[in-house]
Amino acid sequence: MAALTRLFKPQFSSLLFNRSLSTLSQTNSSPPHTDDPNEGGSRSFQWVFLGSPGVGKGTYASRLSTLLGVPHIATGDLVRQELPLSPQLDEVVNQGKLVSDEIIFNLLSKRLEAGESRGESGFILDGFPRTIRQAEILDEVTEIDLVVNLKLREDVLIEKCLGRRICSECGKGFNVAAIDAKAENGLPGMSMPPLLPPQQCASKLITRADDTEPVVRERLRVYKEKSEPVEDYYRKQGKLIEFDLPGGIPESWPKLLEILNLDDYHHKKSAAA
Hints:
alpha/beta; three-stranded antiparallel beta sheet; 10 strands; 46% helix
């Protein structure tokens, strides 16, 4: 905890969101205004990405990390890096259960210390906090500016998780599922093409041990029980933006940038590249 308290210092006085969060309603009828990161003095982002397992938190947090120049810290990746060293932790993950707060805080502290030594500033947290207690502790040591809650219908979530693959050599993630969900029970139809690997990775794909249907369903159950209250926690603070993914990356990425008021900045940065 001492390491977290020292490293999670507020790095700026919420310049990006002070005006917007004061007017953001609990229903989030309008998104907060995001100033151009290149305007004015030194600024950093302290954001959290929430959402069910498999919704795409890592995909979109990673893209925003590159765009904004702040580190993407995924606690799930930190945990998976520890699995070869801890059979007990491996068993917890493979059963779809939540990892203890103590382990998560320890891994997060080590990651932040490493980032601090490299001069990192700001962060996009992915997969943390997952419980009310974690959110409360996070609030004690820093100020979160914005919480993005990604949402996707459950049948599509399950199909996405079962289609996930990882290249055993380069570590990049792909998805072999070709999703074509029909509109039903008031839910919109949705199509997502597979995210296939390049030729050099195609023969090296592996499936995560926890990406089996029983484990995926258990993880979704645990998320609803433990993590959905975290959404309400940030909703009451007026910091939560809820984003229903309309489809795959080509459809969702531009709309996410728009709701975050980053679409103009993205165009400017792309033009300057």
